[in-house]
Amino acid sequence: MRDSFEIIRPKSLQNAIVFASPHSGRQYSDGFLAQTILNAHMIRSSEDAYVDQLFGDAPQFGSPLLRALYPRAYVDLNRAADELDPALIDGAPRTPHNPRIASGLGVIPRVVAGGRAIYSGKIPLSQAQRRLELAWHPYHNALRSLLNETHRAFGQVVLLDCHSMPHEAIEMYQRHTSPKPEIVLGDRHGAAARSDVTDMIEGAFQSAGFRVARNAPFAGAYIAHSYGRPSSRRDVVQIEIDRSLYMDEARIVPLPEFAQVQQRISQAISIITAWGSNEMPLAAE
After folding, report:
1. What is the chain's mean pLDDT, rounded?
2. Do residues 54 and 265 lie in contact, with contact meaning Cβ atoms separated by under 8 Å?
3. Residue 131 burial class via C-beta count within 10 angstroms: exposed 0-12, middle 13-18, buried 19 and up
4. Stated pTM of the model
5. What would the pLDDT profile of 239-276 be if each residue is shown by its tens digit?
6. What is the C-alpha separation between 281 and 157, in angstroms, rounded?
7. How far apart are CA 54 and CA 243, in angstroms?
8. Are 48 and 21 in contact (CB under 8 A)?
9. If residue 242 lies in a helix (H) or strand (E), which one and from where to where?
10. Distance from first CA to last CA of the chain, Å, rounded?
11. If you count DSSP H runs as helices and E runs as strands, how many of each does the chain have, helices first?
């Protein structure tokens, strides 16, 4: 058994911001690779490759960074634990129509990017449940703990749920819009975060030179829906970065521009964490 996540903590918690990368895991076990009909390269096509590295400076600014280690193709941490796909999992209960499950993107994905099947047949329900025990529940337990710890310390918490998006997704969604956004912020149209929080994050990325859009084509999924409670000062903003800025999408390797993009993201992090440190901790009141 391997650890399913890693928390990189700052020397001291200095602000109300938590960073997390649920889809950048790249621990592909030999058993999983033997089970899939895809090769070791194709199985990575839905991975948010290197996103944890792009946000790797967050602890230097006083914020924790939670990163998944198991890959999205093995278990999708941005889905509910009960989003089980009967077309893949033998014995999974039938549920009302769910577009994510129908497209093969349940909590145990049936396909990777481009709709390519991961398996030649079905897997048993016991195996799916084992994956949830190994990866899904530990990650979400850790995430809840980080959010609660930060909220207790500062009276608020802002989760930046960090992802990457295929360049094709932006091209297809906004064919007639130019220039295309490079970052899409998702706050579920205000249901997951206060407007001033999303405004601040948008301004931070714009200050770092990024073109930013909101909620289209990605408004936020399970994590934003489940943890975003703006009325309780628990805000979640999903961040989607255009992969073509920093990565050769076909080869899944960093571009020469990777370091520059990482520096610009760190510039945005510095602005966001400075905002998050403005409120005095409750313990000092």
Report:
1. 93
2. yes
3. middle
4. 0.93
5. 999 999 999 999 999 999 999 999 999 999 999 999 98
6. 11
7. 11
8. yes
9. strand 234-242
10. 44
11. 9, 11
